């Protein structure tokens, strides 16, 4: 293939790169924060979702025999609670688990029970960071993190990253959601830093035009050699 033909192919990549966006259709700006709020807006642990091997505290008002300083979530994601039995805890917020325990206790045993669930110790959970970061991979977090912290764990952005198009995918109540965030605005303090939870997947946008151009520059000496034939 001649140098001119190769150059034409690269030019075609340039023309196509600006037209494709993997984030098309996903919520942005205020709509994105409605799906995945910043930590300060949600009250910390209210957004936290219980993971396997977490240690919980469970207190039932005026019921000392049903109050425990430590209840462990087993490897299957369940806890055993008196009068209620085995109940799934993993994936629920502490408030959701409180509501479920209240429903179980109130259905047969206690009138208007008040249950408070807290997280005593969070086992390591994982977040996946992919796309245009220096070291893509799966990283452990304890409890909740933030987008900026998660990007820092991956050693920051590459020179090809699109910092105004960072996608976060999350499973909420069995449904998968995605949202787009402007990392540049977040780092500049112009937008809040969204909370990152265990199980989240972060994808940093990639500039096809910028990447194709840099690949072209790196290949240029070789292409020049080919053009002589």
Quick gist of this model?
This protein has helices spanning about 5-15, 30-35, 40, 95-110, 145-155, 185, 210-225, and strands spanning about 55-60, 70, 80, 85-90, 115-120, 125-130, 135-140, 145, 160-170, 175-180, 195, 200-205.
What does this structure look like?
There is one protein chain. The chain is of the alpha+beta class. The chain has helices spanning 3-17, 29-35, 39-42, 94-108, 147-153, 183-187, 208-226, and strands at residues 55-60, 68-72, 78-81, 85-88, 115-121, 124-131, 137-142, 145-146, 161-172, 175-181, 195-196, 201-206. It has 7 helices and 12 strands. The chain has a 5-stranded mixed β-sheet. It has a 3-stranded antiparallel β-sheet with strand order 2-1-5, with helices on one face. Helix 1 packs antiparallel against helix 7 (208-226).
β-strand percent reads: 25-35%
Q: How much helix is in the residues?
A: 25-40%
- Multimeric state of these chains? single chain
Number of helices: 7
- How many extended strands? 12
- Compute the average pLDDT: 79
Largest sheet data: 5 strands, mixed
Q: What string gives the helices and strands in order?
A: HHHEEEEHEEEEHEEHEEH
Radius of gyration: 24 Å
How are the strands ordered across the major sheet?
7-6-12-9-10
Low-confidence stretches: 1-20, 41-45, 222-229
Specify the overall morphology. Answer: elongated
Q: Find the structural class using helix and strand composition.
A: alpha+beta
Q: Cα distance, first to last residue?
A: 9 Å
């Amino acid at each position: 293939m001649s140098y001119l033909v190769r150059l034409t192919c690269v030019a075609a990549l340039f023309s196509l790169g600006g037209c494709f966006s993997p984030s098309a259709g996903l919520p942005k700006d205020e709509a994105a924060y409605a799906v995945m709020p910043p930590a300060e807006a949600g009250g910390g642990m209210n957004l936290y979702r219980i993971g396997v091997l977490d240690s919980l505290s469970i207190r039932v008002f005026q019921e000392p025999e049903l109050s425990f300083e430590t209840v462990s979530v087993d490897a299957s994601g369940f806890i055993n609670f008196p009068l209620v039995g085995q109940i799934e805890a993993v994936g629920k917020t502490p408030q959701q688990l409180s509501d479920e325990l209240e429903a179980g206790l109130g259905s047969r045993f206690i009138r208007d029970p008040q249950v408070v669930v807290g997280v005593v110790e969070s086992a390591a959970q994982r977040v996946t960071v992919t796309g245009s970061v220096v070291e893509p991979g799966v990283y452990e977090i304890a409890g909740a993190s933030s987008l900026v912290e998660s990007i820092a764990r991956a050693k920051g952005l590459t020179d090809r990253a699109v910092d105004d198009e960072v996608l976060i995918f999350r499973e909420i109540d069995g449904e998968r959601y995605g949202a787009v965030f402007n990392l540049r605005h977040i780092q500049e303090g112009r937008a809040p830093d969204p909370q990152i939870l265990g199980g989240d997947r972060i994808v940093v946008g990639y500039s096809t035009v910028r990447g194709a151009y840099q690949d072209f520059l790196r290949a240029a000496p070789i292409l020049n050699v080919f053009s002589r034939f």
